[in-house]
Amino acid sequence: MNGKQLAKGWSVMRAAAMALIACMMCIGVAFATTGTQVVKEAGIRAVVAEYVRERTAGLGVETEIRKMAPIGDLKLPAGTVSYEVQAPRSWEGWGRANLALIVRVDDRVQRNIPVTVDVEALADAVVAAHPLARGDIITSDDVTVQKRDISSVNGRVYRSIDEVVGKRVKNAVRANTLLSGASIEKVPLVKSGQLVTIIAESPALRLTATGKARGNGAEGDIIKVQNMGSLKEIPARVIDVGTVQVDF
Fold first, then answer.
1. Rounded distance, CA 93 to CA 151, Å?
2. pTM of the predicted protein model
């Protein structure tokens, strides 16, 4: 074999080796690719949206996510992907909240992602038909029901007129404003320092005593009452004007 033939042989062998290395590299990339999967951000957002929908189902509200913090695509191991969304226990399902999205592959936790959301909630709610002054006792002519976004309201939102009639305006309310637990209150039937009748009864026995209220209370409220005979303070439920009841 002459020199030219030898050089040509080495060239062929070198090209074959390079091709083999390239082929092995390709196989390695394929193995890496088939061992992972990518979950798109749109799919993750859909999971959170479905959680919000389920959490608020049956509450008479129409929810929509106004804003959600960016999450990005997720690169996960190959396998069956499942999700769990966790929210603060006190969260009603609307307004701003910090959620946690737990991502599992074949039941093994892979990611725990904080997700900040801001959810709009449209619902029938009670609003003032005209300006209401502090101390006003609400009548049916003072209010109406409209569909509103209740997500930013502080305190309880009233959904029917019957819930607010007879209550007292705690803070002045402008016309067309939602009524909430922050703006109205129950009318106290018992005032602090007032003498009241304490009732304790069972199916077979009824006892009464005179007491002094140690706080204001509306119907159904629990207040402290001092028994004028024993001078002990006990919790009692307001029944009506001048009457409270204790558990027997």
1. 9
2. 0.63
